[in-house]
Amino acid sequence: MVAISKIATGDGHGENSPYFDGWKAYETNPFHPTDRPDGIIQMGLAENQLCFNFIKKWVMKHPEASLCSAQGVNKFKETALFQDYHGMPEFRQAVAKFMGKVRGGRVEFDPDRIVMSGGATGAHEMVAFCLADPGEAFLVPTPYYPGFDRDLRWRTGVELVPVVCKSSNDFKITTNALETAYEKAKEDNLKVKGLLVTNPSNPLGNILDRDTLKGIVEFINEKNIHLVGDEIYAATVFMEPEFVSISEIIEEVECKRDLIHIVYSLSKDMGFPGFRVGLVYSYNDSVLSCARKMSSFGLVSSQTQHLIASMLSDDDFVDSFIVESKEQLFRRHKYFTWSLSQVGIGSLKSNAGLFIWMDLRKLLKEKTLEAEMDLWRVIINEVKLNVSPGSSFHCNEPGWFRVCFANMDDHTMEVALLRIRTFMLEHNKAMVPRKLCSQSSLKLSFSRRRDDFMSQSIMSPHSPLPQSPLVQART
Amino acid sequence: MGLLSRKVTCNSHGQDSSYFLGWLEYEKNPYDEVKNPRGIIQMGLAENQLSFDLLESWLDKNPDVAGFKRDGQSIFKELALFQDYHGFPAFKKALLDFMAEIRGNKVTFDPNRIVLTAGATSANETLMFCLAEQGDAFLLPTPYYPGFDRDLRWRTGVEIVPIKCTSSNRFKITASALEDAYQRAQRKNLRVKGVLVTNPSNPLGTTMTREELDLLVNFITDKEIHLISDEIYSGTVFSSPAFVSIMEVLKDQNLEKTEIWERVHIVYSLSKDLGLPGFRVGAIYSNDPIVVAAATKMSSFGLVSSQTQYLLSAILSDKKFTKEYIAKNHKRLRKRRSMLVAGLEKAGIDCLESNAGLFCWVDMRHLLSSDTFEAEMELWKRIVYDVKLNISPGSSCHCTEPGWFRVCFANMSEDTLKLAMQRLKSFVGSITGHDRSHQELKNSRRKFRSKWVFRLSFQSFHDREQDER
């Protein structure tokens, strides 16, 4: 049998990671409220499902955006023929405007610096192809999104060198950590071409503060390496402190612009992973020119460009959406973390993203990777929740898990919380605060628990008044 | 400035080719019937614009589908979230049914063997990543689509070695040409991983004969290599001989369940057959489960938008529509090709007999000042800048003989095509009328005519003039 490529037969696709094992387990037994109430609840998928009703209303009101009204059908031919890899001008303008609004209008984006890609997945691979040759390396702070192992390395031949961040300082990216990683790469004879940071962070759910960002910019300028900022969670910042983008920092400090590139997508901020809207925003003209040609391998469907152009150029819709989305994420995050704290489970303080970085170190039999894997298997098979183990994110410390909270409805969230509570009370009673232990019944009704939560006057980031328990998020 | 990769600074993206330079010129001065009647007419873009009315009327009758509705209910959320790289099952089924229909239902396709990609551009590159290592080679018959230089080579590091086909036998693939290409690759120390053919051919517009297909199967069997058949124009076969797919040939030779079966891979797309290049719908169909598995994971880098998958699954599931579309589309393409051929004939220009595609392979060897590629470039520049037609010179398609040009006919209105032909006729008249006698022109054409009989009868320059009234 004639050989196929090493790339095809090897495991550079990264799918043998436990990150995906959990998904596979979920897929064989997925939770369904009526058909499969004992199935596994998916908490390993960072999807934003909280605003669909809001978006759907807009789509129904604007059939021309979907090319299905008479006005829309007139645009069908033009749209169907449009394969220019520059992308529709109105699409780029609308996305550039959206990106600016998400950053509070503090920075403006140039539509001509936007290059399309097949989602952020395609964007990352494309940037790696542009910035590095096979055998060269990128530095990536840990813990990081498992997909990077595939996206940046698989077909490009580029290596990843971890910048090890620790829980002792909340996983901050320090200049020390950066220098250490850089030196390690040198020792291993790897030429470092760039640093990739995800801000807001996946899996941490927090944002980089100004000092850290300045430190990063200083570092890459000093080493003369590229900085790739993955900002795909920018609009999921639901609470103070305010998001600071790389695009803002470079206006405040000295920086060689040619080193700066941003990866963006609508998969998380808008909840549209199926539409494959990714992009590279580069301040480097040579990179733009090359990336644009490469984008031929993953252009955004013109049908989708048209839809997005219409949607995101509607200022009223965008402004309301940004507020609504933050509101929904804030509530869900607050409720989820509060409920967990009730059973003694903590997580890294976070103000963004679609997940929390859950701290289960105290539940480990010992501080080892094996113990983490054991605990993870218990969570999947007994608690019946698919969560993602920290090791799959290359976390240097066992016991952390990424748990998604925005990809399910309220009912499913309650079921998940009930399972967690049951598990903690049955197996880890020592960790659970006394107050809750004394309540003999686990059969508190869902609405009763929610009322407890609401009655604590949890403030929304945007309204000056406490939310009435009667005003419930309907997802 | 930080250093960039070699890919940025090399020119394997292929965009310095005249194929793309002609486009750039066109974009600076594009023809418009009203706004720019003296602009350049685009005849270098293989688009199918002849059958949009059929799609538009379908959309009119089925507004729900584009509007994210199914049975009156909104499925916006379901579509927005659908990112499974296995693809929308209903879409894969509808696409494969369409492909089978195009092949006269002589072959059946298995939905577990199809991988959806962002256009054929992505499909071809992905197959290279799956089948070959950096420095390996694929053999391609010339002339071939200029985009292959980028799609197959740029980011993959794979090499292309041409299988030289000539006008002496209407550019058919021969056993000796295959063997010659293989040997040349060996001499360059390149490991040949496979052959890639485009069937129907771009730029020739012809379908492969059974003999050629049998030849290919024998060749890949003997050399133990892969065969990729890019069949993106299979739905544009508008006259006989009928399209014969490589899958049909394998079936007829009882090669299912053999090793060879697993070494054959098909590339498809809706950009040409349905005229939807903007929607980025491509596919790989492979009989090798390992290739399917790897390609499926790689498709993450360029999935088809779920919005588009849903719309097209509805259109292609409408069998009444697809039957009507295929038939009407063929008829219109056939008519349009005849118009082009007749117009060329009036200008004293022949083209290769063809039964498919969105273009003709036009013979302008008799208009060259010398039998060289420099002369071809000279002629091409005059046609782009003076005659104001963007056509694609054969050298950009790696043709081994100067003087051939690909001219598209399906991406413009009838009136625009007529105008283009008039311009061409005036041009030819101006360069031949004064310099040469009628007899000299007749002789020079006869000299370049192949020994095969062209469908067009040869008329004297004088006779032709009389026909034009």
Automatic annotation (TrEMBL), chain B:
Pathway: Alkene biosynthesis; ethylene biosynthesis via S-adenosyl-L-methionine; ethylene from S-adenosyl-L-methionine: step 1/2
Keyword RNA-binding on entry: no
Organism in which the protein naturally occurs: Hibiscus syriacus (Rose of Sharon)
Similarity field: Belongs to the class-I pyridoxal-phosphate-dependent aminotransferase family.
Reactions this protein catalyses: S-adenosyl-L-methionine = 1-aminocyclopropane-1-carboxylate + S-methyl-5'-thioadenosine + H(+)
Single GO MF annotation: transaminase activity
Superkingdom of the source species: Eukaryota
A GO biological process held by the record: fruit ripening
Record keywords: Ethylene biosynthesis, Fruit ripening, Lyase, Pyridoxal phosphate, S-adenosyl-L-methionine
Protein name per Swiss-Prot or TrEMBL: 1-aminocyclopropane-1-carboxylate synthase
Role this protein plays: 1-aminocyclopropane-1-carboxylate synthase (ACS) enzymes catalyze the conversion of S-adenosyl-L-methionine (SAM) into 1-aminocyclopropane-1-carboxylate (ACC), a direct precursor of ethylene.
EC number of the protein: 4.4.1.14
Cofactors: pyridoxal 5'-phosphate
Keyword S-adenosyl-L-methionine attributed: yes
Record-annotated Aminotransferase class I/classII large domain positions: 41-424
